[in-house]
Amino acid sequence: MAAGGLACPAWAGERLRLLAFEGQWPKALGERIARDHGLIVDVTLAADAEEIWTRVRLSRDGHPEPGVDPPFDLVCLGLEDVARWRAADLLAPLPAHALAPVDATLRPRLIARGALDADGTAWLAPLALGATVMLGVGAAAETLATRDTPPGWDWLLSESLAGRVAVEPHAAVWIGLRLVDPNGDRLAQAGTDKDAARTLFDDVDAALKPLRATLADVWTDTITFARHLAGPEAPAVAGCAWDGLARALAEAPNTGPVTSVVPAEGTPAWLDGLAIPRGAVFPERATRLLDILAGPVSAAAWGAATGWLPADPRAWPALPAPMGDWAEAVLGTGGGLARLWVTPRLDGATARAFDASRSRFEFP
């Protein structure tokens, strides 16, 4: 090819293995990376974080399922899981040159969860950022849009919204936790103390009673969300939504204006990224892919292909206009990014208590 004048990178056609969730690596994006950078990404899909954890451990311990669990060069990982992976010695530190500058607002969150050491050593390359936002539709949207400062979650208790609010129960419990335990100290204690867990979630239930009483109903998936909030006949005009649903609602026909905000107390959020497991066969290829995705244009291409917000705010202006404008208006303007509360991993007593509280909210 070079003799014919078609010069290509020395590494053209080199492969690396990526273990990811459904939707995180669209085919079109893989084709773009192969075309522009000569890297072929072999993607293995996993159902959830536990499957990724299990597959990498099986591979490391010499008990992989043939043809299913090869040594992976990159894995998708949530910020909440980094500490567990590091404790099990499953992660390799990331080369500094392969990382986009971490936004100053997110840096303390990465440090707190073990994804970034004080000396600058990184273990997770942030990729995607998501959050639950409070929203209003129609006249409620106009009320939110005219406020100088974001209201708290108690705005949903306004008399004018009585019986016209719809929320998702999992998010509701996180909201309740934020209200009664803003620093997360009680939640951390509950992880090793069943009595503390019981008391904490009793307080969460009490804090959520006024909200539950004013609901039109809960929503639990995209279908029930649309049923309650989309269209002129929707019974609800306010509530909460995952950021992707909030953006979709704002673009839906016949819905009216939609305003999304990060409330004053903050809101539950998540951050996913890419990590190199120890024992990766081609860590230098993984590093090259991280280097590519660290650029704002590539990060924006990833976001446009997946529909998820890039974790790097520098990429937002390069996103398709509705998506980029939404990110800047909700997370950039007014400090919304600083009020995100990246939720921790829950295990044992706290996980059971959380699930019980969620069930009580959904089925009072």
How would you describe this structure to a colleague?
With 364 residues, the protein is α/β, with parallel strands linked by helices. It has two domains: 14-129 and 270-325, Periplasmic binding protein-like II (D-Maltodextrin-Binding Protein, domain 2), CATH 3.40.190; 131-268 and 340-362, 3-Layer(aba) Sandwich (D-Maltodextrin-Binding Protein, domain 2). It is built from 14 helices and twelve strands. The chain has helices at residues 27-37, 49-60, 82-87, 107-112, 139-145, 169-180, 185-190, 194-214, 222-229, 243-251, 283-293, 296-306, 321-332, 348-362, and strands at 14-21, 39-46, 74-78, 91-92, 125-137, 165-167, 215-218, 238-242, 258-261, 267-277, 309-310, 340-342. Strands 1, 2, 3, 4, 5, 6, 7, 8, 9, 10, 11 and 12 form a twelve-stranded mixed β-sheet that branches. β1 (14-21), α1 (27-37) and β2 form a beta-alpha-beta unit. α6 crosses α8 (194-214) and α6 (169-180) crosses α14 (348-362). The longest helix is centred in the middle third of the chain and has 21 residues, at 194-214. It is globular, with a radius of gyration of 22 Å. The termini are far apart. Residues 1-11 have low confidence and may be disordered.
Layout of strands and helices, then pairs:
Blueprint: E1 14-21, H1 27-37, E2 39-46, H2 49-60, E3 74-78, H3 82-87, E4 91-92, H4 107-112, E5 125-137, H5 139-145, E6 165-167, H6 169-180, H7 185-190, H8 194-214, E7 215-218, H9 222-229, E8 238-242, H10 243-251, E9 258-261, E10 267-277, H11 283-293, H12 296-306, E11 309-310, H13 321-332, E12 340-342, H14 348-362
Parallel strand pairs: 1-2, 1-3, 6-7, 6-8, 10-12
Antiparallel strand pairs: 3-10, 4-10, 5-8, 5-9, 5-10, 5-11
Helix pairs in contact: 6-8, 6-14, 8-14
